[in-house]
């Protein structure tokens, strides 16, 4: 099996057209079709159902596509790492973080690390905690800033870096906006804006819901958002109110006020996480630097 066969397979799978895939790959269609058939013969099964005007993935094709993406991603990282080594750079660090951690304070920490370790190239991306944990297990992410699960993967190490009690984001024209705090019973019939399931950890809102129900209030979810930034925007647009961790760096949004919940409000934690095995010197230096920086605050 060759990497080009994986690229050809992914291109056809994404385009669902040999013509468009050949154009995307800058090759002629007949050789592309020939190479795909050769790849299918090596695998021992068809990847595509071919019809006169349509191309569809077979069951085998659907099952192999995610793995093909992962293999190509790893190959890309290998090539980029080799190129940087050839240029004299020391290492590459693939870093993920949740959107609520994209703060000026964290940016200052990254600048300080880059100044101290200029030979380490950081590839930074914003992803939900669940995605980061899966990427850590696959080995496509080196280190993540994320919300931990109740049960973390056995091959992932994590270190606590921040504790955040929940507060309430409300539209600036909402009656709550003039108050410093609310009681749980005050939230009856208030529409909620939450981060959609699968993005936040499964138990992320569990404590908040428990306290509402203990007060005789049944949660009423009106809107789901894909991330924290979108959730705050929905609040500013008047779609509802939103429970969210108290993060001072991010509590400055036009059209939104932040108020306190009762003293028994749930608390969420943020951790820095990395794999036990295969930790590079650059990764260990970053983890040490980050832990010291977070401890200082």
TrEMBL record:
SUPFAM superfamilies: Periplasmic binding protein-like II, Winged helix' DNA-binding domain. GO terms for cellular component: protein-DNA complex. Keywords: DNA-binding, Transcription, Transcription regulation. It holds the Pfam family HTH_1. Residues 1-58 form the HTH lysR-type domain. One of its GO terms (molecular function) is DNA-binding transcription factor activity. PANTHER family: HCA OPERON TRANSCRIPTIONAL ACTIVATOR HCAR, TRANSCRIPTIONAL DUAL REGULATOR HCAR-RELATED. Belongs to the LysR transcriptional regulatory family. This is LysR family transcriptional regulator. It comes from Corallococcus coralloides (strain ATCC 25202 / DSM 2259 / NBRC 100086 / M2). The gene is alsR.
């Amino acid at each position: 099996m060759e990497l080009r066969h994986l690229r050809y397979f992914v291109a056809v799978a994404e385009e669902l057209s040999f013509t468009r895939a050949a154009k995307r790959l800058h090759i002629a269609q007949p050789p592309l079709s020939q190479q795909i058939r050769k790849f299918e013969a090596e695998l021992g099964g068809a990847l595509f159902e071919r019809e006169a005007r349509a191309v569809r993935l077979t069951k085998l094709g659907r099952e192999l596509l995610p793995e093909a993406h992962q293999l190509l991603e790893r190959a890309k990282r290998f090539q980029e790492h080799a190129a940087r080594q050839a240029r004299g750079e020391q290492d590459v660090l693939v870093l993920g973080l949740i959107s609520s951690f994209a703060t000026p304070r964290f940016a200052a920490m990254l600048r300080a690390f880059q100044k101290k370790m200029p030979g380490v190239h950081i590839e930074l991306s914003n992803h939900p905690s669940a995605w980061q944990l899966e990427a850590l297990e696959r080995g496509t992410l080196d280190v993540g800033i994320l919300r931990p699960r109740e049960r973390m993967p056995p091959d992932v190490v994590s270190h606590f870096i921040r504790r955040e009690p929940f507060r309430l984001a409300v539209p600036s024209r909402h009656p709550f906006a003039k108050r410093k705090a609310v009681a749980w019973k005050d939230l009856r019939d208030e529409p909620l804006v939450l981060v959609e399931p699968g993005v936040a950890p499964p138990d992320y809102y569990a404590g908040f819901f428990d306290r509402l129900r203990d007060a005789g209030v049944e949660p009423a979810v009106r809107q789901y958002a894909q991330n924290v930034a979108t959730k705050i925007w929905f609040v500013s647009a008047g779609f509802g109110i939103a429970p969210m961790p108290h993060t001072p760096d991010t509590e400055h949004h036009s059209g939104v006020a932040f108020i306190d919940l009762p003293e028994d409000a749930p608390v969420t934690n943020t951790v820095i996480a990395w794999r036990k095995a295969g930790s590079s010197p650059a990764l260990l230096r970053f983890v040490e630097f980050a832990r010291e920086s977070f401890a200082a605050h």
